[in-house]
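Q: For a teaching session next week I want to show students how multiple molecules come together into a single three-dimensional assembly. I've collected the sequence lines for a complex. Could you give me the predicted structure tokens for the whole thing so I can convert them for display?
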Amino acid sequence: MDEFSFGPTTTLINDMWIKFYNIASAANHALSELEEFKKNMSTDDLRAYCDECAGEARVIRAWAYFNLLRMFGSVPIIEGKMTADELAANPARSEAEVYTFIYSDLDQAIAVLPDSYPKKELGRFTVWTARALKSKVALYRQDWAEAAAQAGAVITSGRFSLVPSFRAVFSMDNENSSESLMEVQASSLGQSSGDAPICYYAFIQGPRNNKPSNMQGWGFNVPSQGLMDWMTARGDTERIAATFLVSGTTTPEGDVILESCANKYYNGKVYTPSAYNLWSYNGYGFDYNMRLLRYADILLIYAEACVQGGAPVAALSAQGALDMVRARAGLTSVPLTLDSVLDERRAELAMEENRFFDLVRTGRAAAVLGPIGFTAGKNEHFPIPASQRQLNTSLPASAGYEY
Amino acid sequence: MKKTIILILIALAAVSCSDFLDIRTEATMPTSGTDYTKSEAIFQSVSAAYATLRLSEGEAFSYVCVMEIPSDDAEKGSTTTAAPPPGKWTNSVSGPPPP
Amino acid sequence: MKKLLTLLLAFAALSLSARAQGGYMVQGVVQDALGPVIGATIIEVGTSNGTTTGLDGEFELRVESASALVEVSCIGYASQQFVAQAFPQLVTLSEDSQFLDEVVVVGYGTQKSKDLTAPIVTVKGDELSKQISANPMSALQGMMSGVQVIQSGAPGAGPSVKIRGVGSIGDYAKPLYVVDGVFVDNIDFLSGSDIESLTVLKDASAAAIYGVRAANGVVLVTTRKGAYGHVNVAYDGYVGVQVPTHIMPLTNTAQYVELMNEANVNTLGYTPLDASTYPGDTDWYATLVHPALTHSHSIDLSGANDGTNYSIGLSYYYQDGIMNYTENDYTRLNLRTRLDQKATSWLSIGMNNVLSRTMSNNADAGAYYQAFVNPPVYNIYNDANTDAYPEKFDSPQLYGLANSYGNPVANAYYHMNYGSGLKDVFSVYADFTIIPEKLKFKTSYNLDFSFSDGQSYSPEFYVGGSQGSSRSSLSKTYSYGLYQILDNVLSYNDSRGADSWTLMLGQSTRWQEGYSLTGVAYDVPNFDRSSRYLTTGSYKNRNSGDGASIYHGLSFFSRATWNHADKYLATVTFRADGSSKYQQKWGFFPSVGLGWNISNEPFMQGQTLFDYLKLRASWGMLGNDNVPANSTMIVGATGVAASGVFGEGNVIDGVAAQTVYQNYLKWEVVNELNVGFDMAFFHNRLTAELDYYNRITNNVVFYAPIATGGGTATLLANNGSVMNQGVELSVNWAEQRGDFSYNVNFNATTIANKVLRLEGRDEIPGAMVNGVYSTSTRVGYPIGSFWGYKIDGVYASDKEALTAPVSQTIMEKGFFKYADQNGDNVINDADRTYLGSPIPWLILGLNAGFNWRNWDASFLLNLQLGNKILNAKRMNRSTFPDANYDLDFYENRWTKDNKSDTYPSADAYGTAFVQRANDFFVEDGSFFRVQNIQIGYTFHGIPGVKSLRAYFSAQRPLSLFRYNGFTTEIGGSPIESGIDSSVYPMQSIYTVGASFNF
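A: Of course. Below is the structure for the complete assembly, covering every listed component.
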């Protein structure tokens, strides 16, 4: 994947296609069930509740299609129950159609979702989640007005603020914090084995060959030396401390990353201190919630949208947004330009699955990634997997790839 | 006499057979049999949708590989010839299941 | 030449008989319809005193007294007995049609062998008992044409049996086992001594009467009954040793280091290894296996008198496992009782019960895999490994190996898995005679109840890396299954003149259910088995789960047979089956069988070549309901995996479901055509059966992948057709020359398997190895065929690689050159081609028995050709780059000095480009095996004992094969068969035993 040598038969790409369609399918099932419930509910309150739950399912579905769009471009849309034959003939829609579909889901969600949930239901998606997601989708669509408007609404609500310490954003103590807008909840429920709603996102990036065994992982997706150099040159010390786990050092919580680990750097944002890793071996970061959308992301979206022509809101100016993000990381203010915002995005959201897509959507991928193998006209999107085209014969061949 | 016996047997069997052969799979909840009047059950399918957002070991590997590694911020990492984890191996003394 | 031999034998016989002094002299001439019989045996009953007839059929024998009983016998003729002083001058022997009058058990009844219109083969229980194995089906390997038995080596493990090829694509291609009328999944619970006879119904018309689940053949087992007139008590026991065989040689430390350094010559940052830095040179397999004991004892008591027939048997079987450092063994105790009673002239009742208790300690098969991948560089124990507790095992992590390696001995040692089972197979029947000799009604209730429990315990321990557990854990499972069948059968038979016919009408109701309950607890102390309970563990994090399955079936069936003058035979069967597993509830299955006893025709009376010649042809359709159940409702999944968690660990229960409509599932149907000859020659000394079979399975049921969006990756559907066809030949020769007699059976089966149709798709891939599918099921090829690249040699130098015309991803010296199949000079997916099939095309068996006076000897040989195996054990280098190598690779690899054209270099061997399905890893799995050799001696004249036989037996003493692995018998589900990744080493068993009758 590093060298852009992947193709339509690369199983990883197929796995992602399947994963996101499964997420969408679960959301579809929820929507059809909720319709039935709504018909049978006796009070208005309960019917409204059904609508709210439907809103949550729509956000989930929008998230799935957003990622399919980012990865593949033109994909089929599935809205309800279908037979195996119908699925096999479902055509791929144009990007515009998919955007419209996502917008419609998010608009319906925004109309019904509540502002917040009681503590024991923390993690359920609120109207702000929907707005935040819509602003990001709008940014990718280059719909600057919408992006600025939705981001602005989140800012104006006054419910969200940046966690004072950058490093603390990703700590286990700050799950579902004031900065969190969309998080995947995971928990080991205090168990050391068996069935628990755990997530392997952190474990896959844990320090390889580290000791003790609950502080090690598969060690994939390590930050590059290039990122380290660029952030050092910028003077981004706080962010470096959070983003990089360096071999041969000890963390402030007291965990050692051995010199003998297979790689120099590891993803520091998924770092989970050993006190939290109770699983019986190979249990690094099972409780870690994946941060999908943060307030910092929204501030930067707001800034970028405004630079591109969107309308700012009274509560905060675009420059103010940029400054807030920088200040939190211990950096001084810089003038607001497209480049400075995009740079800030890279620094703030490093290792959070945004960089590649940001480069593609801003048209800078060929310049930056060309040297490592990116081919313009081809690698903007991942190829629709060959096995999927075998199963659904109306899927087109992705441009530029050999099938 | 013989014929009568046989006919009676067949008749008896035919009467009971239609239900006899209709069985629902055990230890499962039929979603079409969900009681849509129970308000406590409203959130069930949505909870299941949230559950799909979590990543299993194989999914996590694919996720970071496809979404992050192609960028200039990250590299594949791990050992040079390492392959994706073949499957879950919690608590396993003998290591991952052989490929 | 034959005459000379006979003369010599007669001479020897005469001289032997001269020993008997005193007594009474018996003389005479033996002849048959055509003239004198040479070589007939005359013996004094109950002794070994005997002689044979000479060239003119004459003989002379001195016996004990005038009242001694003398028997005249000859193979192919019916024997006759006379009192010595009443011995006639001329004895005329008549042809023995005993084997034709032999009664064969067919579905729901019996038929005379001569009346059969279908290929049915019977093996007597004694033949099965001769083979040393826990399982009677294993004993069948090589004995019958058309039956392929694939062994597994674990103690007590049953084999996988395929009759006439692989019919279903799902893993449901198993035959139906019926034990005294009760349907069971396998006969692992029986011991050879319980069996009186085992019959295999191979084709559709014979199996038709069982319909459902009989689509892949039926194995009918009858347990022992009493013999009229006397009480028989028999004991049979043996003790033996199992010796592990064919352990693949692996490299030692020096060779390993050499290969690793070669393989990593181009790896950045690699420091070459030095053999002297490693403390050990351990042969892991040698440490892990040891010879093991097995013994078995059985006692049978049976008898019959007017109206009552009874049989009781008690058997004990023990097999120790060959894995060292851990408890592994299998024990089985069987109690079998059978009683048949004629209550009145019109009512017979009876019951039959087999109670079987098994206990096994199961070894961790993963330990063998670790023994295979761990380099030999360290020792079993290491006192300096202070981290390890409670035992100081050495840890591979101390030598730089990744966490996926674990000390194999520690693996075996810290694994405690115990299971036990109790099974009861019970049937009771009442047989009413409505019109004597003509009309009967039988009703029977059959029950198969099995209960099993298993526990798996892992103690708190640590060895190194991730080999360890900070908390002990105990998992227990209790399950039971109940299978009940109620059968009612009305049968009528009559005859008039030269015609006789039968008519049978039946009805069967089946209830099948299974339940299981599992519990898991942690911190269970490691004291002994009596303390390992969920209650002694911590109450925290205890969890449990359960499950069940229920199926019902209802069937109506009928069979009519007609026999005209013993010349023309016909059998017609018709079934209506209902099953809860399909949406198409009812299936209708007819079948027809015809037979022509050619040898009974007038035009055949004059010829002498054929003593017996029958032509059989049959066609039938059978439904198979041994498939997964399909529910029209989409069932919701519950549990943690389907539930979201919120707040502080607040799990809100979820119910997940597919969003794709289920398919309407139709019956899977087998359509079978069979044509065959039964023949006998040379006074019935040579018999042969030759059959051609053609089986087509339609609407094959299995899970096939579907396009995404439905929330599931596969969906159960009727997905295609598969054909199996071939020829079966079985030849039997029996001969007696004086004191010496022998019989030889040769059987051969050919199998040609082909997929005829796949619904709406081109292929079904299977067996993902290293991220690539290595088998493909597609139209025109066998199921589960291996697909990959053919190898066109190895690049001898980088220069050759640069100038090669065909381009592929890696072109360097030591790498494979893949063959370009489509002529475009580029190697890609389009160049993957058919590499072979895991199904053999030819299976041969030869068994022979010899008897000379009191000595007997026999051997059984087995040969299988054409099956391929994917050596997935060797294809692990991407997950285990530091793994050990096998010696065959070390000796044959490509190096600058040994420019092999078939093996890659050590460097190339470790790359994903080489480690994929190609014809280096897809190897020929043909083998020849000596299945069994046995020598025995029977003692006569011991007071109180009717006969005592002592024997020595060697089971599987020799296997020859070229495959680089431990065994060539690799099972697997049909689309993923023959993938060898981790197998229990096979064993040879040498035993000494004795059996006697009172």
